[in-house]
C-alpha cells in the first residue's frame, strides 16, 4: 500500500500550496477507498475543505470508505439540503448505515428533506436489528420479468445499472414479489438473444431470511461462491440482497468478534483505535472481575491443603506450572472446537467422535508434558516429587483437554454462544481441578513429616 | 440448511431402492456445493457409485466442494483417462489444488495424459509456494484488446465465458502482457456500442504480486470491494487473478489460523475433523512443552520466597487468582492488538497513542479488580492482607496490560508473526512478574512472625 502513502504526501503538498484543482484532478481517477483513505488522514479542516470540493457522486462513493467519526464530521459540516442530496446519491445500505450513526437531531431534520421513496427505503432498512441479515442487506437489486427475451433483459439491465448495487444477477419475481429464479448477466450475454428469461433462469436459488444472523448470509455466500444472496421476509417475498463485498465485511467482523470473545473481551462497536476508553473498559471488565471471584474457588482448594503445603512448601514451586499446563491444553481444545463449530467444520453429532479423538491426543500431550515435568520434579525434589508432578500432569492435561473439547458443544446445545464463555470457563475448571488433583495426589504419595 | 439434510435423506432412500436415475435427476438442478455435500455424507462405495453416474462437467464442478479425502478417493477410483478428462474440465486453480493433493505416483501417470496447455498451466500454478498469491490465483481470466468497440468486446467475452472464471471483468493487456486497464461487463453493456474499450477502461487498477501473501490479495479485495484482483509477476506481466470467492476462503482460513495461534496451536492443514491425530499432536505439543519449561521461572520466583510462604501460608490462597488476573488482562490487550494489526486497524506508528490509551484502561481495570480482591483479602486475612493483594492486583494488571499491548508491536517490528507468540509470552511474563511482585510486596508489608 505504499502507493496510497505516496498519494497522501502529494495531496498534502498540493494542499499546502492551496492548489485544490490539481488535488481534485489527481484523486478523480482513483478508487473510492483510496480517496477516502487520503481524506481520513488529513486534519479535520483540510479534510472537509477537500471533501466539499469533490462532486456529489464522488462524495457519496467515498464516504462509506472513511472512518466512522470522519464520515459524521463531513456530513455534519454540510447544509441540510446538501446532506439530503448526498444521502440520496448513496447506495441504499450504506445510506442506512450512515443515517443510523447520525445524532438524533440531525436525523430528525434530515428525514423530511428526503424524497418519499428514499425515506421509506431508509425507514425499512434501519428497522432491522443489528446483527441480522436485514441490517446488512441493500434494497437496490435488479429485476427482470420472466416472459421477456435475453436481449430485452440486457436492455432493461442497462437502464437499471446506475441505481442498482449489481446488474450481474437479475431476480425474476412473480406479482407478489416471490422469487421465481435468477439470471446472470453472463448467462444473458452467452444465451441466444431470442431465448426467454424463464427458460434461462435457475430456479433452485439459495436464499436467506431477514431475521437470520448476518453471519449466516456470509457463510452461504462463502460456501456457494455467490456474488449476492437474495433476502426474503416472513411471507417469502424478496426484500433485498446481501452482496459478496458486504459478506466479506461481515465475515471479518465475525472473526474479530470471536477472537475478542476468546480472550474474554466483549463485542466492540468498531475500530479499536476509535473505541472510547469507557467502552473498552466496560467490554473488558466483566469477565475479569467474574474470574477474580471464580478464582476464590482455586484459593479455597488451596486452603483445604494448607497443612500439606506447610509440610512440603516445595510443592508450591510446581503450582503455577501445573495450573498453567492444564489451562493451556484446555484452551487449545476449546479454541479448536469453538472455531470448528463457527465455521461449520464440526457439528453437534460429531461430538462423540471428537471426544474419542481428544482422549488419544490429550493422553499423548499429557504423557509428553509429564516427562518434561518429571525431570524438573526429580531435580527439585527427588523420585517422590517426580511421581507426584508427572501423575498430576497427565490427569490435569487430559481432563483439561476433554473439558475444553466438550464445553463448546454443551454451550452450543444450550443455545449459548460457545465463543463467549468457553475459554474463561475452561481455564477456571482447569485451575480448580488442577489444584485439587495436585494436592490430593501429593497428600497421598508424600509422607507428611512428623505425622 | 435443513434443505440439504432433506435432500440427503431423499437421496439415501432412492439409493436404497437403487433408483439412480431419479437421484441424478434430483441433483441436476442443485448448486454444486449441495451435490458435493450430499455425496460427502454417503459411504465410500455409494459415494463413488453416484459420482460416477454424474456427467463429467458436473463432476468437475462439484469436486472442489467436497472434503479433501473424499475428492482424492473419487479421483483415485477413476481410470487414468477419466482422471485426465476430469482435470481438464476443472477450473485451473481448483485443478492445481487437487493435483497437489494427489499421491506422487498418480501425479506421474496423470501428467503425460494431459494436453500441453493444461500441463504447462498446471506446472506453473503449482510452482508457487503455499500461502502466496500465486498459489491461490487462477490463470483463466478474460481479456479484450484496447482498440475494439464495446459491442465487439461483449461479443469476445461471450466466447470466453465458458473457459474463464469470470467475464465480469476483462483485462486489457499490451503485447508484453502488461496490464493497461480493465473494463467491466456492466460498463460495456451500459456504454454506447461504438465506444472504444480504451476510452472506457479504468487505468488505475489495484494489483498484487505473485509472491505476496495470499492474505494481502484477500485484504485488497475486501478493502476495495473488488470482484477480482489482477496478479502480476516480477516483470509486471499479468499472470492471473484472484477472485472474490477465493478471497473469502483465504480470509476465513487466515482468521482460523490466527485464532488457533492465539491458543498456541500451530497452523492446521485443513478441517479439524479430518486432521490426523499425529498432526494434531505435533501442532499442539510445541508451545505446551515450551511453557512447561518457561514456568520453571515462575517456580523459581516462588522458591525465592519460601520463607515468606512458610510464615504466611495463607498467601498461597491468592496466588492462582493474582497470576490469572494478570494473565487475563494481558491476554485481552495482546489479543485486541494482534487482531487490530492483522486487520490493518492499527499500524506501527499508532503504538504510542495506543500505549497511552492502555495506561488509562489498564489502571481502571486494575483498580476495579483491586477492590474486588481487597474485599476477599480482608475477609481472609484482615487489613494487611487486603492491602497486599489490592496493591499487587493494580501493579500486575496494569503491567500485564501494557506488556500485552506492546509485545505485538515489538514482534511485528522484528518481522515475527504477532499472532503466534503474543498470547503465550504475555501469559508467561504476567505469571513471573505476578509472583515476584506479589511476594515482594508481601515480604515488605507483612510482619514475619518470629523475625
From TrEMBL, chains A, B:
One of its GO terms (molecular function) is magnesium ion transmembrane transporter activity. InterPro entries: CBS_dom, CBS_dom_sf, Mg_transptr_MgtE_intracell_dom, MgtE_N_sf, MgtE_transporter, SLC41_membr_dom, SLC41_membr_dom_sf. Residues 137-200, 201-257 form the CBS domain. The chain crosses the membrane at residues 285-305, 311-331, 359-379, 385-411, 423-446. Pfam families: CBS, MgtE, MgtE_N. It is a multi-pass membrane protein. GO terms for cellular component: plasma membrane. The keyword Metal-binding applies. Its main location: membrane. Keywords: CBS domain, Cell membrane, Magnesium, Membrane, Metal-binding, Transmembrane, Transmembrane helix, Transport. It is found in: Cell membrane; Membrane. Gene3D superfamilies: CBS-domain (3.10.580.10), MgtE N-terminal domain-like (1.25.60.10), SLC41 divalent cation transporters, integral membrane domain (1.10.357.20). The keyword Transit peptide does not apply. NCBIfam families: mgtE (TIGR00400). Homodimer. Acts as a magnesium transporter. Belongs to the SLC41A transporter family. This is Magnesium transporter MgtE. The lineage of its organism: Bacteria, Pseudomonadati, Pseudomonadota, Gammaproteobacteria, Halospina.
